[in-house]
Design goal:
- The chain is of the alpha/beta class and about 325 residues long.
- Helix content is about 45%, strand content about 20%.
- It has 13 helices and twelve strands.
- The chain has a seven-stranded mixed β-sheet, sandwiched between helices. A five-stranded parallel β-sheet has the order 2-1-3-4-5, with helices on both faces.
- The longest helix has about 30 residues.
- The chain starts with a helix and ends with a strand.
Length: about 325
């Protein structure tokens, strides 16, 4: 009798222990299976930024994240219209995303105005300290961190490249967007570099797609010897239109983005934007694992890429000097 009672008691204790473990295991599985939600605020469209989204996704996979399993990326596209940013940011806030990834100064400022709670990974921002996005590059503070896109002498380097290719160059038009705070601060750098190279410069503003034709007419009337396009996502979105204008006007141009060279433009000089998007996955991973954006120093580009299109050069009647070709990271035939 006593032996039977002992066996029953052991069986009862085993069943009780097992029943207690089941909820604990379920809770642990639910914790391990947490699906993060990442907001991606794009400046253009999904098709036009496919070369940037791809490296970002690759960077996530390299860190063990699979979309749909470990995280969901909520993509929102401004279609080249900065005025859409506030509404798109609000959509991401309502979705309670864990982190927002965005590129360019205007988009970063739109997110900063909307939230101080959600962590933000910024890409390709120009002057994050001067524009009030972060306290310093080493100690960002607040809820924003990420990667910077410029160097102090970047515009001067672009002018020097044009001068090498067009030795008799005397006047250069700059395509700018006054709503992009970086362009306002870049004008001083441009004027200083132009004085050193004995070049005249003029700035032609384009805020929206509707202003391109007016700017193109003004540039044609001024008759410069070359054009520089500053980095701006409205310009990237309208790259085919800009390249077509320079081809029609037989105007040598240096661009901020390689995509314009791939679209038929002459030359680009700037950081690797696909590389920045891949690197963004590192910041997303650190934040999802608990690191505060304030404790993640911002990174500056260590390498700038020169891409030259020889077919475009031939159509303009230009011969690219050998020293320029030797410095090029990529030469398109």
């Amino acid at each position: 009798m006593r032996g039977g009672m002992a066996i029953g008691r052991r069986a009862f204790l085993t069943l009780t222990t097992a029943s207690l473990l089941v909820p604990a295991r379920k809770a642990a599985a639910q914790t391990a299976a947490k699906v993060h939600r990442v907001g991606f605020l794009g400046n253009s469209t999904q098709s036009l930024e496919a070369n940037l989204v791809g490296p970002f996704r690759e960077g996530l996979r390299e860190r063990g994240y699979i979309e749909g399993r470990d995280l969901i990326v909520e993509y929102r596209w401004a279609e080249g219209q900065y005025e859409r940013f506030p509404a798109l940011v609000q959509e991401l806030i309502v979705l309670k995303v864990d982190v927002i990834v965005t590129a360019g100064t205007p988009a970063a400022l739109a997110v900063k105005r909307a939230t101080t709670r959600i962590p933000v990974v910024m890409l390709a921002v120009g002057d994050p300290v001067g524009s009030g996005l972060v306290a310093s590059l080493g100690h960002p503070g607040g809820n924003l961190t990420g990667l910077v896109a410029i160097a102090p002498d970047l515009e001067g380097k672009r002018l020097e490249l044009l001068k090498e290719i067009v030795p008799r160059l005397s006047a250069v038009a700059f395509l700018t967007n006054p709503t992009n705070r970086l362009h306002v601060t870049s004008e001083k750098q441009v004027r200083e570099a132009a004085r050193a190279l004995h070049l005249k410069v003029e700035f032609f503003p384009v805020r929206t797609e509707a202003e391109f034709d007016r700017a193109f007419q003004a540039i044609a009337a001024w008759r410069p010897g070359a054009l520089v396009m500053l980095a701006d996502r409205v310009f990237l979105h309208n790259r085919a239109r800009i390249v077509e204008f320079t081809e029609r006007s037989r105007l040598p141009a240096v661009y901020a983005y390689s995509e314009l060279v791939e679209a038929g433009g002459l030359m680009s000089f700037g950081p690797s934007y696909p590389g920045m998007h891949r690197r963004a996955a590192y910041y997303v991973d650190r934040i999802l694992k608990g690191t505060r954006p304030a404790d993640l120093p911002m990174e500056q580009p260590s390498k700038f890429e020169l891409i030259v299109n020889l077919k475009a050069a031939r159509s303009l009647g230009l011969t690219i000097p050998q020293p320029v070709l030797l410095r090029a990271d990529q030469v398109l035939e």
